[in-house]
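Format notes (please read before filing issues)

Several people have asked whether sequences and structure tokens are stored in separate files. They are not. Every record keeps both together, in the order shown below: the sequence lines, then the token lines. Line labels are part of the format and must not be stripped during preprocessing.
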Amino acid sequence: MNAAYSRPAIWLHWIVAALMLCNVGLGLYAGIAPEIWTRWLYDTHKSLGVTILGFVVLRLSWRLSHPPPPLPASYRAWERHAARAAHIALYVVMFALPLSGWAQDSAWKGLEAHPMRWFGLFPWPPIAALAGLPPALKQQWHDGLEQAHIYLGFALYALVVAHIAGALKHQFIDGRPEMQRMTGR
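Then the structure lines:
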């Protein structure tokens, strides 16, 4: 049997996964929702994004201080390399996606009239270097960061599909108890 991840690692994995799924839905729906809901959806998307960033910091801190269980010795070398590369890429995207959204919001021309408030409770600070740019340059940064945020979203989708496909392959094709590693059963 494969060694399981620790309880905190399992919880952080599933919390981040669930929050990211919700945030993808919020972001996509905001683009097509009735105008009366748009501001609330985007504000909630932003708040959830920085919350995810906090959980990803916790998750990476836990992983660095509590190494994950080793992959089974029966895995081929390319599977080990692919798993390691996919996990590194996932962490990069899990950091870059909310950071690019925060940066994009910081360069938004409407920031002064509608500053971000974390779930409406308190102001979330913009990134000062972007918020203080001259208007034309600020717009260029906003547009570029918006594109980066979108492309990072697509990268996240691809990485999550590869991650799930790998787990399913090991579980059902190879007959290894792979999913039990992240469920603790």
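For reference, the curators noted about this record: The longest strand covers residues 117-118. Residues 7-182 form a domain with the Fumarate Reductase Cytochrome B subunit fold (CATH 1.20.950).
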